[in-house]
Amino acid sequence: MKSKRVLGSIELSIAAIIWGAMFVVVKIVVDEVHPIQLVWLEYLISLVFLIGYSVIKGEKWHINWPDLKLIFWIGIIGNTISLVAQEMGTGLSNAQTGSVITSTIPAFMIIFGWLILKEPLDKVKIFSVLIAILGVVMIVGLKMTGTNVVLGVLLLILTAITWALMSVLIKKVKTYSSLQITIMSTVVAVVCLTPFILSDMSSLTSINFLEPKVIFSLLYIGGVSTAVAYVMWNKGLKVISASSSGLFYLIQPIVGSFLGWLLLGEQISVGFIIGSAMILASVWISVKFEDSDEEALASASNGI
Asked: What's the pLDDT score for residue 301?
């Protein structure tokens, strides 16, 4: 079981690293592709990779209506509402505000894990989340500037709540693999977003799909950031508790800030170093405490 948690921690970390790098790629391509069109295209591209991998892997598909209903809501809540709210909220406020507010995702995952999965609340998990959130604030600052900032903040809070709820609901799906969950929830998102794309076809047809920057950005965002990262995130969620797994999400601002400095010439502050250390420490404390809890339970069971 411990080896599974180590593997799950690695999978969650890789997913967060990939998503952190995605922020840099989005910055490079966002002038060429409108955010909503970008999300829709990344889902379409990811489906090509995901379905192809499913065929090669020889996945066996079946019908389980309770799980399918859950996956439908996962696609609506996480893949659609959460991402659209994030794009709109960040646009109405700013990227720093978005990073700070979405850093509350682990806190909401603890709440939903307690309400839905009946995971116990304890001081160590709450303390770890508070350290992580403070770490994100240290990295990106806290600047509530921008037009319609209140609406933007509300949308970003909605992003955090829906992403956390999606991550907890994934743990309730019992009969489908992580790959199958990712494929089906992505199909739901594509169906939901397509009417918005059809209502503004000019934004789609104006994209220069032959430009290398656009090609490589879409391949990374769709093939790596969506297809690979989502599968790894969903697999990691299966073995790491909701209260601990949410903290891995906060590795994103570390990676995004570092790559922004390395590739885009953005500045790194002392706050980045301190904040990064706080986030990594919070992840370590939470996972280490979870290991200790399970070892104690195992020893108690053996004693009985």
From this structure: 42
d(CA 15, CA 229): 4
Q: How far is CA 102 from CA 65, 109, 159, 162, in A?
A: 32, 12, 7, 10
Measured distance CA(14)–CA(19) in Å, rounded:
9
Q: Tokens 């998102």 label which residue?
A: 189
| Cα dihedral across residues 27, 33, 39, 41: positive or negative | negative
Token couple for 269:
């502050």
Residue written as tokens 């949308």? 155
Amino acid of residue 103? S
100-116: average pLDDT: 82
Burial class (CB in 10 A: 0-12, 13-18, 19+), 300: exposed
Is the pTM higher than 0.90? The answer reads no
Two tokens, residue 111? 């709440």
CB 220 within 8 A of CB 41: no
How many helices (H) does the chain have, and how many strands (E)?
Answer: 15, 0
Residue type, 195: P
